[in-house]
Amino acid sequence: MKLVDLRKSGHAPSLLASFLYFDVSFMIWVMLGALGVYITKDFGLSPSQKGFIVAVPILSGSFFRLILGVLTDRIGPRKTAISGMMVTTVPLVWGWLFGQTLTELYMIGILLGVAGASFAAAIPMASRWYPPHLQGLAMGIAGAGNSGTLFATLLGPRLAENIGWHNVMGLALIPLLIVFILYVVLAKDAPSQPPAKPIVDYFKVFKQKDAWYFCLLYSVTFGGFVGLSSFLSIFFVDQYNLSKVTAGDFVTLCVAAGSFFRPVGGYIADRIGGSRLLTFLLIGVALTMFGVSQLPSIYLVTSFLFIGMLCLGMGNGAVFQLVPQRFQEEIGMITGIVGAAGGVGGFFVPNILGTLKQVSGTYATGFIVIGVIGIAALFILALVHLSWSKGWSSEEEVSVKMQ
Predict the structure, then answer these.
(1) CB–CB of 270/134 below 8 Å?
(2) CA Rg, the chain, in Å?
(3) pLDDT category of residue 82 using cuts at 50, 70 and 90
């Protein structure tokens, strides 16, 4: 496979539109985490409350991904994405002009989940335009929109330091409007868009064991990435006494690894198989999280987190190299389901770190638990690998290079 093949196939404007939509939406989705050190100070939250408040948008994003997944298969990813961006303006305006109570903050977090649900429309838009042998790369490029986290963690604290976190949410309306206009102009649904089916038919995918396997794996890879992205600024400030802006810079460095290497993960998975690549990546996740649990110097812990986030980001690309090979017709719904599982995993990560910090008095316990989860995912992958290689058709096995 050559990169030039990507230019000869599919629809580049739609691929770009998918990336931009996912990028700005992801930035908005993790905004509470990026601004968490400012928000939690204003409300005087405990460690467990800190973990919960930044995790609310992640959990609500899981719910909305199911809804957007169904809409993507019924009305197409273009209309679904446009609707999602329109709804996303609501929590931004709310947080900008109001957001003075904890109850309001929870409601804002819930509505921000619509931005997180963008995954269920952005990925199918890219997938349906490209042939099987380019799925990993195309979906990796669209999925690299999780780089929006970089803008949130790098610029959010700096802006909040000068204009306050409320106004930062108002400013986020500007890039959202720009991307909205570009998306309307560039995006086009693929000719392979399947005809709409009764809603109940979309949920039949839950009967497929492979759907649950993908959910488990993605809850670890994507859940780990987004959960850590949302909580690391709080971790750096609490554990290493960094300033809020400096903490954001360290988080940005770690997030960059996962964001920019997601397409690399998809590309490598196209060549050697997603299952094989995931094996090495999950080992890397477990080892680095155990390294972080030792709470070493700031530079060493950042190195561990950088490598760990890199593995998680590449793991996201590897999982979604496999998904369309197995569920092409239901790609919208399965993307919503698997993406929702990733969001659920992301919800638990900040809560694990915050709650165990409050109970044990150290962040070490939480990172040990995350490392153990990585090992558990590795065992699950080993168990289902045989099922995949024997159960899929010979054509599918060749395309994903399971052997």
Answers:
(1) yes
(2) 20
(3) very high
Does any domain span residue 62?
Answer: yes
pLDDT in tens, 219-262: 999 999 999 999 999 999 999 999 999 999 999 999 999 888 88
User: Is 49 a member of any domain?
Assistant: yes
Question: Residue 288 in 3-state DSSP?
Answer: helix
In which domain, by residue range, is 163 found? 13-188+206-397
The verdict on residue 110 lying in a domain is yes
Q: Is the pLDDT of residue 9 over 90?
A: no
Q: How far is residue 53's CA from residue 11's CA, in Å, rounded to a whole number? A: 39
Instruction: Report the number of distinct structural domains present in the chain.
Output: 1
Asked if 201 and 322 touch (Cβ cutoff 8 Å), the reply is no
pLDDT tens digits, 345-374: 999 999 999 999 999 999 999 999 999 999
Contact 57, 106 (CB under 8 A): no
Between the two ends of the chain, the Cα-to-Cα distance in Å is 18
Whether residue 196 is contained in a domain is answered as no
pTM of the model: 0.82
Coil, strand or helix: which one is 192?
coil
332: domain CATH number? 1.20.1250.20
